[in-house]
Amino acid sequence: MKISTKGRYGLKAMIDIAVYSIYENVTLKSISERESISEKYLEQIFSALRKNGLVISKKGAQGGYMLADSMSKITVGHILRALEGDLNVVTNDGEQLVDTMDKCIQENVWGKLNNSINSIVDSITLEELVFQYNKYKNPNYMYYI
User: Fold this and answer.
1) HEC string of the chain?
2) 83: how many CB neighbours lie within 10 A of its CB?
3) Sign of the torsion formed by the C-alpha atoms of 58, 28, 65 and 51
4) pTM of the full structure
5) Distance between CA atoms of residues 80 and 10, nearest Å
6) Which region, left, alpha or beta, applies to residue 17 given φ > 0 means left and ψ of -120 to 50 means alpha?
7) What is the Cα–Cα distance from 25 to 94, expressed in whole angstroms?
């Protein structure tokens, strides 16, 4: 499995929104400038994020995007699945595994890899990434709940 630029840029953009939407809606233009991502490409990414209920858009002069839920409830898994689909290394595409060797490999290798990947991305919240980002940006950063 390889995460495409759509997934990588989408994750960056979601962190950007989480950081900068505290006071106002965030425009695609501002994300594009800060993260060096094409505004046209961001439009495609945000279409998928909006359809999957991760961001809310507002039109008009004060328009832009904001998170649809709190940072603590949005996980990396939610974001990547919205942009990449299933995060499985190998899938059997619904075909019945008749061969004993295939069943053995599916359950003991691919299945475990898939479960591990999903477990990891589902355990990392946007809130954690924002905290880490702010720590890198400003080593004296303090976060209070």
Assistant:
1) CCCCHHHHHHHHHHHHHHHHCCCCCECHHHHHHHHCCCHHHHHHHHHHHHHCCCEEEECCCCCEEEECCCCCCCEHHHHHHHHHCCCCCCCCCCCCCCCHHHHHHHHHHHHHHHHHHHHHHHHCEHHHHHHHHHHHHCCCCCCCC
2) 24
3) positive
4) 0.87
5) 8
6) alpha
7) 42
User: Residue-wise pLDDT tens for the chain (145 aa)?
Assistant: 789 999 999 999 999 999 998 888 999 999 999 999 999 999 999 999 999 999 999 988 778 999 999 999 999 999 999 999 999 888 766 667 678 888 899 889 999 999 999 999 999 999 999 999 988 888 776 656 5
CB 25 within 8 A of CB 46: no
Chain-centroid distance of CA 70 in Å reads 14
Tokens representing 16 are 């950007």
